[in-house]
Amino acid sequence: MEKENLKVEKYYTKDVDTDKNSIYCHHDLMGELLIPTHKHEKAQLLYTEGGLVYVTTETKTYFLPARHFMWIPDTIKHSIHPSSENVMMRNLYFPVDKNEHSFYNNEGIYPVNDLLLQMMLFTNRWNGNLKKGSRNYFIARAIKAILPEICETNLPLALPTAKDKRLLKVITYLDEHLDETIFFSTLAEKFGFSERSLYRLFQKDMGMSFIQFFTIRRMLKAIELLLEKRLPVSEVAVAVGYNSIPTFSNTFYKLLGQRPSDYLNGVEILKKNQQV
To answer: What is the pTM of this model?
Structure first.
């Protein structure tokens, strides 16, 4: 355990910020199921392959699926929880520039288009500090520079952390019954709320309605199941409470901007190139 903690301390606080002017690059298999809470002085672009990664900040839990990346601004405390030790993590850490585009100030998850995918692929064999002025440094800078131009939609792949203990019980129940049809009135009665008071509690504590929360949670579970590749799309739909495949597909599309089958076709594009 001590060795693991030292590894985290060395990589995530020492190596990344060793040279404040460099762009730090790290590509590797996760090899562990938790990277404890940490922060760094550089902003982070985190791209993953081979599974789902949960990134928890002080206010939210983000769900980062394959063929998407997360932008984490500098000094944001966060922990990383991959769904498997075999998840490939690709990171670029960028120094903060003066008068940066507002894009870089906010946490967010974005799909990776073909251009960014090829540029990330080009960095496959890089590791460590990319010295300012070097060829690789300028290539990495170009990756950062295009993000505000190609990342038009910050996907709602995050759920706020509930603070009210009463709501935590409700959310646990929902997580255990994602495959069922749950009526709001029945849910409120089960936990001793009026519909109005439970509605207000969701809005106040979570900043979203019950239906928004439950829909996002179902779609995030669907992503997990799709990545496991054990069930066809039709059975994934049923497993998260959708008897209608078109309705499931349309809801998935609204959240991720692509159909479930299209998402599956794109998630392993880098798999053959994971040697670093």
So the answer is: 0.76
